[in-house]
From TrEMBL:
Coiled coil: none annotated. GO terms for molecular function: cyclic-guanylate-specific phosphodiesterase activity. Residues 24-279 form the EAL domain. It comes from Ruminococcus albus 8. This is Diguanylate cyclase (GGDEF) domain protein.
Length: 284
């Protein structure tokens, strides 16, 4: 099986190219064919209901399978974001997710909501909403099964676009989540002025193992979750790796968790096992 991340995928591009112009050009050159050939795959990372240990949803994360190796997103997403290639990839991901959901429904499986990441590069696209709805509707997927993850924007113009997009998705009954909350600038304006359904607390707010209840991280985690809940948002912590963190999530009534403690992003066939019969062990 291909190993994820680290040296191996870098080798493919040749270490000298890693951050250079050459690698950017190589990725941009390979992209159209790779997209056409189906080299980009959806991996699904489970989201777990902390109270019940049940599968509550999943995040779709892109993996580029190149010569039997798995290339992680950080090796190509930032490059695809240098032009509008990323938009093609995101729509392709949404389409693949919709096709999977459509099949799960047809097979009578227990289906959960799946979130898809959308680059902020889409914000300039005035037809974005139409595009998203067309993909979902062509696959006949009920809107409630789709969630769109968006990160904060950096300019006022982008902010207005983001607000318009989230409002539109809301009206169409599609869930929206603010991703990586707490990273970057993440102003409170983002929460005050945009009607998100879900707040994803970034892992930088999660307590590390020897943190006490009075540590800065734990205090901030507590109040971010409390604020989100009071405003009616669902809360999920990402990057959960330890039991200690689960305890802190539970103490602070954060409802959902996503992280390596439960599962890494899984290829389709492994994730499908999680849809049936699986229950996560929660030590209370
Ligand atoms: P993200 O949307 O914040 O996704 C969560 C990232 O955290 C994923 O990295 C996931 O593998 C990682 N993660 C999950 N649990 C843990 C944990 O317990 N510990 C640690 N250390 N990490 C954990 P991944 O898959 O490498 O993706 C990185 C980023 O690339 C994503 O961050 C997202 O911003 C972007 N990305 C991935 N797929 C897509 C896509 O289809 N479209 C767009 N536009 N961006 C994508
Ligand atoms: Mg995400
Ligand atoms: Mg995230
Ligand atoms: Mg993140």
């Amino acid at each position: 099986a291909a190993r994820e991340g680290g040296q191996e995928s870098i080798v493919y591009f040749n270490s000298r190219m890693v951050e250079g112009k050459e690698k950017v050009m190589r990725v941009q050159q390979l992209f159209p064919k790779a997209l056409e050939n189906g080299e980009f795959k959806v991996f699904y990372q489970p989201k777990i209901d902390i109270e019940t240990g049940e599968l509550a949803g999943a995040e779709a994360l892109c993996r580029w399978i190149r010569d039997g190796r798995i290339v992680p997103p950080m090796e190509f997403i930032p490059i695809l974001e240098q032009n509008t290639d990323i938009c093609k990839l995101d729509f392709h991901m949404l389409d693949m997710v919709c096709k999977d959901i459509k099949r799960w429904l047809a097979e009578g499986r227990n289906v959960v909501r799946v979130s898809v990441n959308l680059s902020r590069k889409h914000m300039m696209d005035v037809d974005l909403l139409e595009h998203i709805l067309r993909i979902i509707d062509e696959n006949e997927v009920p809107h409630k099964y789709i969630e769109i993850e968006l990160t904060e924007t950096t300019t006022d113009v982008e902010f207005k676009d983001l607000k318009r997009v989230v409002n539109g998705l809301q009206m169409a009954g599609i869930y929206t989540s603010v991703d990586d909350f707490g990273m970057g600038y993440s102003s409170l304006k983002l929460i005050r002025e945009i009607p998100w359904n879900v707040l994803k607390v970034d892992k930088s707010f999660l307590p590390v193992d020897d943190d006490s209840a009075e540590s800065t991280r734990t205090i901030m985690f507590k109040y971010v979750v409390a604020m989100a809940k009071a405003l009616g948002l669902e809360t999920i912590a990402e990057g959960v790796e330890t039991e200690h963190q689960v305890d802190v999530l539970r103490d602070n009534r954060c409802s959902f968790a996503q992280g390596f403690l439960f599962d890494k992003p899984l290829p389709l066939n492994e994730f499908e096992d999680r849809l049936t019969k699986h229950k996560y062990e929660m030590n209370k």
